């Protein structure tokens, strides 16, 4: 049994492997107090029929397709047995000579390949990516756009890491998945045979059907190539309109503002970050952006992107025309599920997976932005990492499970601390909402059945650690004395429930 111990940065989502968190996050620079523990228990791959199992405690050898429930010699549980080759005297590798193809070189794909290598030393691993260069930190693209880091700071691993781990990087565009022949067909004619396949093809930026969206100067921000295209056009003093007031839209707006552009943000919802913040917090953020010189228009709809061959402005449905030399559309993402759908896999919006990250084909797994787990498409870095790890374990015959992931956001967006977790918007009258606000600070706690289920903290995130622990552990309110002492509103609610 292997316990994969990692640490998640609650500010940027970076994952650190090790017994202890790093002193500082290499991505966003925050201290180790901003890291939370992320553990996944992975059982070793099962050997082929007729192999043996050795107790890791006392050395007893059991013959059979699976280990016993308990060791008859020392009583150790079955999880403490490992596959064993009596001929060589070493643990067996049931994947020796077989091939794993990982389609997609983002965090989910890279993590899956890395974990598969740890579990199966004799396995051939091919990691297929469309983009040139090494797999990189997509979460750092806005910092790259802002000029805070260089291109060389983006790769997740250096080239010698791939050589050391015997993971072959294949650059190419996948044209077809041949499930019957177990092969991946690249558009250049190459065919990559597989015994197991992991789909980690990610997602693409969604471009709404806006009139004029094909004009020159209308861009999205999803990849490193997108960042380079934006930087090639963005000049100080130019006017930029960012369509979309979510995390990516605001981070992109902030990055371009730092480059000296006059930036306007458009959001169709009534406030900014509607998926992360309640309205009062969104309004505070809007005021802060305007203080930074970024114009904000909420509750608006875009009628067209105006211009000739080049973009000249954005016309709203109310008739207002906003001049623009550059338009960046940040309207969300859509999973790259076309290949899976065409190959006959079960697909809804994303590729449907179970808790093992297995698809409707037992030889194919999926992870990351392309995977739909229990009806949810997460689209966030930490979930992609965890799913990639589980897929990598199970693709080589191990046993690990991905449970429902409680999304949380703790970001320094445009020099503002904010934290969002769980169900911060009540669904019905069975929820109790406690709100506190003061100048530049807003707190919201959502409770149900004696437990906290969601929260918003804006401007002061000092309670974030306690709140996160309380929600994730599903602790009853009576068992949260630190929160009772610090939050009067919650104390009143707890006393009356």
Question: Any overview of this molecule?
Answer:
The chain is an alpha/beta fold. Helices cover 21% and strands 30% of the residues. It has eleven helices and 31 strands. A five-stranded parallel beta sheet has the order 9-8-7-13-25. A five-stranded parallel beta sheet has the order 15-22-16-17-18, covered by helices on one side. A five-stranded antiparallel beta sheet has the order 27-28-31-30-29, with helices on both faces. Strand 27 (408-413) and strand 28 (416-422) form a beta hairpin. Helix 1 packs parallel to helix 8. The longest helix has 15 residues, at 381-395. The protein is globular and about 75 Å long. It starts with a strand and ends with a helix. Residues 493-497 have low confidence and may be disordered.
Question: Summary?
Answer:
With 497 residues, the protein is of the alpha/beta class. The protein has 11 helices and 31 strands. The chain is globular.
Throw out a few tags for this protein:
five-stranded parallel β-sheet; alpha/beta; disordered C terminus; 497 residues; globular; 21% helix; 30% strand; 11 helices
